Amino acid sequence: MPRIACLWVPEMLLAAHLRFEPELAETPLALTEGEAARQRILAVSRRAREAGVEAGMSVAQARARYAPLVVRRIVDAAVASAAAALADVARTVGPRIESNGRDRVFLECEGTRTLAGAEPSLATALAARAARCGVPAWVGIADAKLAAYLAAREGGGVCILPPGGARAFMAPLPVDLLEPDPATASTLVDWGIRTIGDLLALPSGALAHRLGARGAALVRRARGEDAPFVPQEPPAVFEERMELEYAVDHLEPLMFVLHRLLACVTARMAVSGVGCRELDLLVGFEDGGQERRNVPVAAPTVDAKTLLTLARTHLESRPPRRAVGRLRVAGVAARMRPTQLDFLEPVGPAPAALAATLARLAALCGPERVGVLRPVDSHRPGAVKVEVFGGAVSRPSSTAAVAAADVPLRIVRLALRAFRPAVDVEVLGAPGSLAYVRGSGFGGRVVRWAGPWRLRGDWWTSEPYAREYYDVALSDGGVYRVYRDARSGRWSTDGVYD
């Protein structure tokens, strides 16, 4: 029989709001649907209950009882984000999960022993990871979804029912936990049915005859005959939203809000074992309209500070045109690059630290300037392109090392230490000869020279080149490669021979 785990958040409305404002955790807090004084309170924090504020009161009644009460309006997008974070936690140990989109997530435990161990270890790990993502959850494990949900709800933290023990556990629980419709609930009260055990004691055929299909479905739920498990696909994008109580028209308060959203996005990605390779920002204005901003990331990372630096750089270059009233942050997921270490090489940088460093360099220099140089299929000297850094370090092959070791010692090989960019120099001499070369930090009388070697190409493009190369030995002891641009007549030093 398959085993089902359930993650249930007791106070989902509070948890969803405190993910964005954790500093209010120890504050008397009340959540409402609106901001008017007549609005009813939907949820209250522990400190608010201690002050005498209860759910169902109006805001005016609650403030009359406790004036310093902090009132916030709950947003459906915040609850959806918290539910998505809870589903991300369940996916860390198994792929088959089912979420109701609000306060509970079910997970098939089959195949999770390799990652999480026995069921007590699994439940403890799920509870710890949920708390790390800002959605403190209670965990229950049983043979069916309903039994696992009730175990989580009534267990007060972690509750594991033994195989076949769901019926005995559910029998003394109130029948209202089966969530019957109002008409069926009223009928059960009239019959004196108070617990699930009382319901199961009735003949199922007679109950179905009197209550119809709804009564039969209620009995099946009480017996643990759940609806089919409907697994859901993991998200490719981790999204967080926030609607601001007051619109902001300066960058600093906007960065404060953005940092909170990025912290939630990166926490979910870190738990899921992926990194962010691209940020998609949706900036909504107070007076309507919105702007979509795309922020590329040089390497997948879960460092919220690095992502915030990238977003700040982008928004400073193109500030929002009007006051911002809502904000959505979507992080596109990508797998972190694995790194294979070498026994004979020194340990390189940690992959996460390398990704964060690349992202910071991209924020300072621009994403198009960070990467690895690759040669271009062109005869133009120094023609290269910048590609995305793949994290692998190229090393000479063993055959190349052996071939280099077999080179006779009498053969002298020169290596050109290239100057990038080339250094402008002044060359003196009669036509057809070189007499003196003078540059920044080097120069002298030409002792010997060879050339010219002419190179031209790309004449069919807008940037053709035509150069005359010379190798010159100067009186300062150095051997340099210089060239003259045939189009402009300027002289440059391409490098020095070692």
Let me know the number of strands.
21
- Rg from C-alpha positions? 35 Å
Structural class estimated from helices and strands: alpha+beta
Q: How much β-strand is present in the residues?
A: 25-35%
Q: Give me the CATH architecture of the largest domain, please.
A: 3-Layer(aba) Sandwich
Lateral arrangement of strands in the main beta sheet: 15-21-20-19-18-17-16
The quaternary organization reads as: single chain
* CATH structural fold name of the largest domain: MutS, DNA mismatch repair protein, domain I
Shape: elongated
Mean pLDDT: 81
Distance between the termini: 74 Å
Q: Explain this structure to me?
A:
- This protein has 498 residues and is of the alpha+beta class.
- The protein folds into four domains: 4-160, MutS, DNA mismatch repair protein, domain I (3-Layer(aba) Sandwich), CATH 3.40.1170; 171-222; 236-392, 2-Layer Sandwich (Dna Ligase, domain 1); 416-497, no CATH class.
- The protein contains 15 helices and 21 strands.
- It has helices at 12-18, 46-50, 59-65, 76-91, 113-116, 119-132, 145-155, 166-170, 182-191, 196-201, 204-222, 251-272, 304-317, 351-365, 398-405; strands at residues 4-8, 29-32, 41-44, 70-73, 97-99, 104-108, 138-142, 158-160, 237-248, 274-285, 290-301, 324-335, 372-375, 384-387, 416-424, 426-428, 436-438, 443-457, 465-474, 479-485, 491-497.
- A seven-stranded antiparallel β-sheet has the order 15-21-20-19-18-17-16, with no helix packed on it. The protein has a five-stranded mixed β-sheet with strand order 5-6-1-7-8. The chain has a four-stranded antiparallel β-sheet with strand order 9-12-10-11.
- Helix 1 (12-18) crosses helix 4.
- It is elongated.
- The relative contact order is 0.07.
